Amino acid sequence: xxxxxxxxxxxxxxxxxxxxxxxxxxxxxxxxxxxxxxxxxxxxxxxxxxxxxxxxxxxxxxxxxxxxxxxxxxxxxxxxxxxxxxxxxxxxxxxxxxxxxxxxxxxxxxxxxxxxxxxxxxxxxxxxxxxxxxxxxxxxxxxxxxxxxxxxxxxxxxxxxxxxxxxxxxxxxxxxxxxxxxxxxxxxxxxxxxxxxxxxxxxxxxxxxxxxxxxxxxxxxxxxxxxxxxxxxxxxxxxxxxxxxxxxxxxxxxxxxxxxxxxxxxxxxxxxxxxxxxxxxxxxxxxxxxxxxxxxxxxxxxxxxxxxxxxxxxxxxxxxxxxxxxxxxxxxxxxxxxxxxxxxxxxxxxxxxxxxxxxxxxxxxxxxxxxxxxxxxxxxxxxxxxxxxxxxxxxxxxxxxxxxxxxxxxxxxxxxxxxxxxxxxxxxx
Length: 429
Ligand SMILES: Nc1nc2c(ncn2[C@@H]2O[C@H](COP(=O)(O)OP(=O)(O)OP(=O)(O)O)[C@@H](O)[C@H]2O)c(=O)[nH]1
Ligand SMILES: [Mg+2]
What we know:
Blueprint: E1 12-20, H1 26-42, E2 45-54, H2 66-79, E3 83-86, H3 92-102, E4 105-108, H4 109-120, H5 124-143, H6 162-167, H7 170-198, E5 202-208, H8 214-222, E6 239-244, E7 250-255, H9 265-270, H10 276-279, E8 283-289, H11 295-308, E9 316-321, H12 328-341, E10 345-347, H13 356-369, E11 371-379, H14 383-392, E12 394-401, E13 404-412, H15 413-423
Parallel strand pairs: 1-2, 1-3, 3-4, 5-7, 5-8, 8-9, 9-10
Antiparallel strand pairs: 6-7, 11-13, 12-13
The site of magnesium ion (MG) has 4 residues, from helix 8.
């Protein structure tokens, strides 16, 4: 049994706070707060107020100025706020001082994200990964002199092993982390065997900002029925489906967890196993919601996360999705600009099934690059090999002569590598 806490207090009321520090613009902070609001809603907590403050440097006691902190106390009472959510990262001391002053719990963006993950974790693997991320987060806070949060109970930010963690000492947390890592390794060993079986197939991974439409694309292309939602982090587990291209080639297509700005590092490291599919992919399809005003920043955040897992140099196709949401002329204008900025791009609507075939054709181009032409002379009596080659390679030419069959074919390099020893006696070029 995992300690992820699944029953939550729905409809807690939250007050969001963002501080505009030196070097950030008012637009940046508004945009970031808007996303925090979406995250908070996804965590099923109601946002009843948003406060902004401009400050050159954070106040050591409260992060915000002390006048503003007292003002918060009044707002909390007046609007019956249950939780204050900071867009900026507070030190444990600032957090404690603020919750003492306002008498409600104070959490930050990372905790909201961890909370959503706790709610969305369905499989054993993702549950362990979420618990691991929560513990790593707590441990890093403990290191920064967390004492305790008395009288503050449950709800957002304190789901999962939350309350218990605070009581147990660091040693226990470390032991638990070690145990979870071991469990993950075991699961990874099993999935690794499955992955190994698929290794000869070309693998394509869908990556992108959360809510861009990755799962919808997988469902449409591979005729599957995975959960999609207008929510952040609807998908936490990696799903893999077979996909047949128009050339007759089979590839594997996998969908995984979405990325977000300021994705907590604990999450990236905990979800390492889930992201393995991305790290080992032959091709990445980077899915972008073209209708989002901040699409360039979203693209940057995705590259940032990819870099963190060493996958930013892989072959990549930019897939701009949701073109149905843009007015025609805005779409045409944007498309022209995006084509200049990203040479390798396609424009689709997964929902309305526009240009989905282009994705398959694009994958086929990459698959073709990975193929090699070879010529073989095989004895006709080796029928099983000949028919295997017929169904798994592209036959360019075939000729029977005496007791042999001559084959000129195009074979995937991975498959060639795998069966090279079998073909060895028959190579003629
Ligand atoms: N209008 C429109 N909506 C779309 C399109 N593609 C996906 N959506 C919607 O966008 C929302 C998110 O889609 P998902 O497929 O769940 O997105 P995702 O990238 O898998 O998101 P996460 O798993 O949360 O990271 C859903 O409500 C979809 O119905 C599209 O082409 N047009
Ligand atoms: Mg998804």
